[in-house]
Amino acid sequence: RCGRCRAPPRLSPQRLRAAVHYTVGSLCQDVAEDKEVQFSKQTVAAIAEATFRQCANTGKYIKGCFLILCRHAKRSTITTEDVKLLARRSNSLLKYITQKSEELASSNMELKEKKRKKSSASKGGRMPGEQEATVTENEDSNMA
């Protein structure tokens, strides 16, 4: 991952093409075993190339859509809502993205809470509830 933005490392087109070819080959092999057929090396290569080109074209299309959305909203940051907007035509994809988004938000909230508790404890400070209890005890002793 990138140290500055935590993005995954960028793969070269050759490595991506090789990864697609490997994956297509594995899938063809699975289908061949299940259906008792065989795929020639040329067929696997043609499927892999078509898949790679389709993914590249889809990626360019999605990038363009995001740029249009951001310009329209007069901002430069792509949000989760932008991704959901583009995925709205596929119910299963929208459901998956929404679920993952909620999981990430929940995980981020838990991490923030842990950091807040840890920093509060390391500073020797009390938790908000503990301070209130102390104040209440002092008030009770003053009333007596």
UniProtKB/TrEMBL annotation:
InterPro entries registered for this protein in UniProt: CENP-S/Mhf1, Histone-fold
Region of interest (Disordered), residue spans: 105-144
GO biological process: DNA repair; replication fork processing; resolution of meiotic recombination intermediates
Keyword DNA-binding attributed: yes
Stored Gene3D superfamilies: Histone, subunit A
A cellular component term, taken from the record's GO annotations: FANCM-MHF complex
Pfam families registered for this protein in UniProt: CENP-S
Any one GO MF annotation of this record: DNA binding
Assigned keywords, A-Z: DNA damage, DNA repair, DNA-binding
Domain of life: Eukaryota
Key word DNA repair present: yes
PANTHER family xrefs: CENTROMERE PROTEIN S, CORTISTATIN
Assigned protein family: Belongs to the TAF9 family. CENP-S/MHF1 subfamily.
Protein known as: Centromere protein S
Protein source organism: Centropus unirufus
Gene behind this protein: Cenps
